[in-house]
Amino acid sequence: MATKKTRYDEDFKKSLVSLYNNGKTQTSLCQEYGISATALGKWIKQYSTVETEDGEVLTAKQIKEMQKRMAQLEEENLILKKAIAIFTPHSQND
């Protein structure tokens, strides 16, 4: 027997994450709203926010994107450093 997948809209997901962040347990939310613990855990990771020192609020998704971009920039920086070492002429006193 095939199970029917229920799709939840973003507002619903965010409201459950908000309830979780305000003290409700995952178990009680799952029982009350009839959702799986796996789905709720995924939503909590996805929609939980972090506030930076300057007051900016970031989601886990935004942080992950920033980490990916930072790794890319670090790699580019390393490549440029190696290129400078190759193409910079060295004096005989070095």
Structural commentary:
This protein has 94 residues and is mainly alpha-helical. The chain folds into 2 domains: 8-47; 60-87. The chain contains 4 helices and 2 strands; from the N terminus they run αααββα. The chain has helices at residues 10-21, 26-33, 37-47, 60-87, and strands at 49-51, 57-59. The protein has a two-stranded antiparallel sheet. Helix 1 crosses helix 3 (37-47). The longest helix has 28 residues, at 60-87. It is elongated. The mean pLDDT is 88.
Topology:
Elements: H1 10-21, H2 26-33, H3 37-47, E1 49-51, E2 57-59, H4 60-87
Antiparallel strand pairs: 1-2
What's the number of helices? Answer: 4
Count of individual beta strands? 2
- Provide the low-confidence segments as ranges: none
> How many angstroms separate the termini?
76 Å
Strand order, main sheet: write it out. 1-2
Q: Quickly count the domains.
A: 2
Counting helices, strands and paired strands, the structural category is mainly alpha
Q: Let me know the average pLDDT.
A: 88
Strand content: 5-15%
Principal-axis shape equals elongated
Main pleated-sheet profile: 2 strands, antiparallel
Series of secondary-structure elements, N-terminal to C-terminal? HHHEEH
CA-atom Rg in angstroms: 23 Å
State the share of residues found in helices, binned by percent: 55-70%
